Structures
1.
Amino acid sequence: MTESSANKLLNGDACHRTSNGRKSSKNGFVKNHCLFQQPQKYRRPRERKNQNVTHNPSLYKKPFAESFEETPLLVAVLTYMGYGILTIFGYLRDFLRHWNIEKCQVAREREEQKDFVPLYQDFENFYTRNLYMRIRDNWNRPICSVPGAKMDLVERVSHDYNWTFEHTGKVVKEVINMGSYNYLGFAENVGACADAAIESTKKYGVGVGSTRCELGNLDIHEEMEQLVARFLGVESSMAFGMGFATNSMNIPALTGKGCLILSDELNHASLVLGARLSASTIRVFKHNNMQSLEKLLRDAIVHGQPRTHRPWKKILIVVEGIYSMEGSIVRLPEVIALKKRYKAYLYLDEAHSIGALGPNGRGVVDYFGLDPKDVDIMMGTFTKSFGAAGGYIGGKKELIDYLRNHSHSALYATSMSPPVAQQIITSMKIIMGEDGTTLGADRLRQLSENTTYFRRKLREMGFIIYGNDDSPVVPMMLYMPAKIGAFGREMLKRNIGTVVVGFPATPIIESRARFCISAAHTREIVPGD
Ligand SMILES: Cc1ncc(COP(=O)(O)O)c(C=O)c1O
């Protein structure tokens, strides 16, 4: 793809889903997120007027292709009908439970408390009781091996329609793992990382028993943070024991009353919780939609705070690198252009993209060839590509120094376990090639090849998949509620472990299976042409 073809952009607008009536290719697949010129059949019919900074193709150095086919009308109708039937049966069974014809397994208000205000709303439990319970066997399966390319599962059965489970004592061996976020295959119990983690356990033990600011600041933590800063290309970094807490505890340290958070509608729960805890005003923009973001930014500048119309103290845009339910990649060049134009700050959560994207595995900034300094707060986790645990924040030295003294997770949480820190150091050095091998580069190439191959194969087989062509998170649409459980079970019968997802984690008619591709997957696992 050349620069000149980039200039022939037709489809620079943001990520709307295609309408039901749009003509699609054989399997209904429509490319509607492509910033570079596509074959005629994939193009949008009309060029948009009023292109502005948010539609500037010159911001992208490489093709940006994402697809989100809107649910076909017939499938939508059948899916709603499926939920309708399940709801009718749910009411019927609730009726039978009420009259003790069917045994009621669900927790109920105690008889002596029946005049109290109910502790929980019975209706809210309806979905769990009558819909989720039917397919509960697809989740929380106990795994009894390293979650690598293959894994062992503890076999379990339910004799009461999934209310309780019993272990049979058998192990389901060598299940192909298509669900763990093991992008670079570092979830291992042998090899350089495991050896180094064992050595560090011998030296430091596992627990630290104190916070960073007291007696929990080990030399290995400082070494790790300097390495992380070097990896990200930022001045400084700080690591935390938990990725979720990195978001939920640091956002409140950065913004507060009188500040505005502009949050992507599909942001992770940890970002949402952090934003809520901060007491900032939160406004939500459509997923990866730059017009929607720009509108909010413009309104925020023009109108200021409600009632007083004073300017906002700070405006913080919060986005993720790869969205783990959609497989989409943030339109970072456009977000950065907007944040510069409107003088807002940018918080980028790279939980799924760090290690998994970019020629050097340095995430979405590396992927787009951008300057890390353009992102004010670089957040990420060590739980995915590094096969470890915890999270980090990277950025300017003043930012990190401030967080060390103001973040609850820095001041009040026990610091990271030393073998975990060692796993991060060793895997990161491998990715950076500082171990003197090409193992890191090989894994990055393998992940990229596996991703391209897997997405292409699914598409050729006629499945509807979501997301960016380069995203190792591959959502495959199932739509109907009955398919959620059936797909998970049938895959397991074929010795393949997948994650299936439905409402409320997805919109009601967009249930899906989510595959996570790993560099550890071989052609034997994902058969070649
Ligand atoms: C975008 C994002 N941020 C944060 C987290 C939380 O990270 P952790 O699981 O390491 O606590 C996740 C978890 O999957 C995530 O997807």
2.
Amino acid sequence: MALPSTLNRYLLLLAQEHLEFRLPEIKSLLSLFGGRFSNHQEIHGKSPFWILSIPSEDIARNLMKRTVCAKSIFELWGHGKSPEELYKSLKSYPMEKMAPFLHSDTTYKIKIHTFNKTLTQEEKIKRIDALEFLPFEGKVNLKTPQHIFSILEDYGLDPNHIPEKPLNIYFGRWIADGQRELIESYSVKKRHFIGNTSMDAGLSFIMANHGKVKENDIVFDPFVGTGGLLIPSAHFGAYVCGTDIDYNTVHGLGKASRKNQKWRGPDENIKANLRQYGLEKYYLDVLVSDASKPSWRKGLFFDAIITDPPYGIRESTRKTGSQKEVPKGIEKCPESHIPVSINYHLSDMFVDLLNFAAETLVLGGRLVYWLPVYLPEYTEEIVPRHPCLKLISNCEQRLSSHTARRLVTMEKVKDFEDQDHYSHLLDNQFLPYKGLNSFREKYFSGVTKRIAKEEKSIQE
Ligand SMILES: C[S@@+](CC[C@H](N)C(=O)[O-])C[C@H]1O[C@@H](n2cnc3c(N)ncnc32)[C@H](O)[C@@H]1O
């Protein structure tokens, strides 16, 4: 298909981690920055090389200011399945597009990047020398060049069968790197306040990107825990708030989660975490509150809801309430009632979460959350639906051989009306999936372990 003249081709070099999460991240970010994800993209599933066709270098730069899934982006000057094909394609790249980066008062450097193979220094120099036909008029500067060009060679995905010759070769002008270093700088290992279920930094940034969080947004986490999911949103300039049913977590009290420490110290709380990263000004507040009984007045408050609800594995799924009959008169004076907690079924939790998101998100706002699933029973139909929320993406992260969690992203596409509250009772397609309720038993059941053992012995 011919490329429309309004689009340019860029080569995206992706990290080989969290593969399923990459496409929704790139799509979300492109739509955030006004680069529609047209059908001209050349996305090669698990490959680290994708060719994106987007309208401008500005969009490419904005994308790289946010992505944690991609390492670098290049303006693509040529591509082939052999050196000859690459040179032919380079010769047909418009000279007027190359010239500004090649003229005599510029400095430059050429780098080689290989995937699934290491080249010797000699082989690298050969590759560079073979590009002599390109009209480089500037001076080589290895330390601080104005322009960096890269030859990228792709030797496929199988480390046990590395082909002699590359499967694909690309040449491009480097434009920008992504935000991979955030994974290290925001690592949970170096964070003041953490809990047993604090989310890994890379995945939390991916969640904020799937949520299309942007500057001055208001982002909410109803199951906030230690606030790990608020941090990436604040890093991207959004104001953040949350609730949790656990008083100790919200107040930074109680037992510490680190090995060598018994009790949480004075600076172990969500606000101090944000302070640690210079993001305190984005902290709105966190409250002790039960997500099953939201205490918000009616209104559209949030640009995104990004959350990791409890699945009952490392934290209990509880809500306020009593198993006993409601004592007489309690409805009349609820303030005298001291709530105890009862089990919060996962199926109810997700109905509540979707209803809450549908009610409080702005139109176009996104809900991003994790859904635990038992793999033998999983089909896409069990992912909860809501008439106001459109399913955008649904990516798997394996937890064990038979369990996984899925990162679900939904976008609010319709104003909430009173009857939408009961959609899960009125319409089959919005029925909650009751199988979720036994996730904990299945996770811990001997069945899971036994099947894993059997699978292992079959493989041996
Ligand atoms: C998976 S953890 C969230 C971890 C969090 N993302 C972090 O970075 O620490 C789930 C949290 O939900 C809280 N929770 C459980 N039931 C709740 C309820 N009914 N309402 C609000 N929070 C609840 C738990 O106390 C726990 O802190």
3.
Amino acid sequence: MNRRTLLPLVSFGVLLGATAQAAPVHQHGRAEAALVVEGDSLTLSFRAPLMDIVGAERSPADTAERERYRERMAKVTAPRPAEAAGCELKDERVSGLAELFPEGHDPADHDHDHDHDHDHDHDHDHDHDHGDRHAHHQDLEATWTYQCDHIAELDAVTWPFLSDFPSLTTEVILLLPSGQGARTLSPGDTRLPLE
Ligand SMILES: [Zn+2]
């Protein structure tokens, strides 16, 4: 087995645009993913416009919509590496609803008295912002890390949840011990071949 580390870990963040959080630029219908093999470790990451996941990128208007967002986002579950590779999921991070749209910023919260605790000059404007539809884009981001017993046997990774989001074309960057590559998963494709 080739345990050589081809690329420093930092490449991973750079690939998916670690700085994009501040000013996300994305195209609806386009998801980005990365597959990185380093030693026995497999890291899969995924980023998609929230539009393609929940059908909107603004704060949920009410509790029912918030629940609908939550259900859609919960469909983004861990991809499945080929069984022969013997991979075990070690870590999973998926953007949460609370992180994207903090409860305190819900239009539904307008009834509460936000002003009582902080009487700054800008409170007035600040409060008005709460219910506004955010003009900026929002992404769902996910990262899964696996430890694999037979990583040389990894010939494919299945992303079952992609069938739930048929508007997405997913561009995948591959960083393998054998080199770098790229694949495109068409809408509805869930299997990413590595051979
Ligand atoms: Zn968008």
